[in-house]
Design a protein that fits this description.
This protein is mainly alpha-helical and about 240 residues long. It folds into two domains: about 1-75, Winged helix-like DNA-binding domain superfamily/Winged helix DNA-binding domain (Arc Repressor Mutant, subunit A), CATH 1.10.10.10; about 80-220, Four Helix Bundle (Hemerythrin (Met), subunit A) (Up-down Bundle). The chain is about 75% helix and about 5% strand. The chain has a two-stranded antiparallel sheet. It is globular.
Length: about 240
């Protein structure tokens, strides 16, 4: 019985973490906002125990900062943080591309193609939430195909801190279309097992994301758009 209860608890805080992760990435909890445990517990219909466990998980992922005397706060990056983070991400994704092109199996490539077509369908519907979820799965799958667990741990930790910013970059139609085109080029390079080409495409993709994020930050738009919802979840 104890084992069953433990599994149920693990399952619950994983579910709560998944819901909070989406709220953070999509800006429904604003960057810099305090995570109000009472309000979030009511909103998610859970007790504070699995909520706190979920918040700890997200802090380990880099989506939440645990601050003295303030509690849990949604991560908010400065321009310098963004430049440094994307600089490292470009190096990591470039390496992943080189390794994945050498090591990806046919079943893995078939699954990646399937995810790509699902993502194109989400783009056609202009369903940003579904598009972003599939987009993130594709980038993660390229990382998995590199077959280097040390890389994967490092990449996921670094990427977590800019997930919400990457989500925002696709809300401009022209830039969204460009990102889709770059994803098509990624699949072509993987098909050709061309590591150098995939590295170049991934690094170009990250550079475009970085530049868009910085433009939005300088215009004061990057954290706008969900203020009403975020205010309810925050302090």
């Amino acid at each position: 019985m104890a084992e069953v209860i433990q599994i149920a608890r693990l399952g619950l805080h994983d579910q709560v973490a998944a819901r909070l992760r989406t709220m953070l990435v999509e800006g429904r909890i604003a960057p810099g906002a305090k995570l109000n445990e009472r309000e979030l517990a009511e909103q998610l219909h859970v007790s504070r125990t699995p909520l706190r466990e979920a918040i700890k998980m997200l802090a380990m992922e880099g989506l939440v900062d645990l601050l003295p005397n303030r509690g849990a706060v949604a991560v908010k990056l400065s321009e310098t943080d963004v430049v440094h983070t994307f600089e490292l991400l470009a190096m990591l994704e470039g390496l992943a591309g080189e390794l994945a092109a050498q090591r990806i199996t046919e079943p893995e490539l078939a699954e990646l193609r399937a995810k790509h077509y699902e993502m194109l369908a989400a783009f056609a519907r202009r369903d940003l939430s579904a598009y972003y979820r599939l987009n993130a799965q594709i980038h993660a799958a390229i990382g998995d195909a590199a077959k280097n667990p040390v890389f994967n741990t490092t990449y996921r930790a670094v990427n977590a801190r800019v997930q919400s910013l990457r989500f925002r970059t696709n809300q401009n139609e022209a830039k969204w279309k460009r990102a889709v085109k770059e994803h098509e080029q990624m699949i072509e390079a993987l098909d050709a097992r061309d590591g150098a080409a995939l590295k170049a495409i991934l690094q170009q993709h990250l550079a475009h994301k970085r530049d868009t994020v910085l433009e939005l930050m300088r215009a004061g738009d990057v954290y706008a758009g969900h203020a009403g919802q975020a205010g309810h979840a925050g302090a």
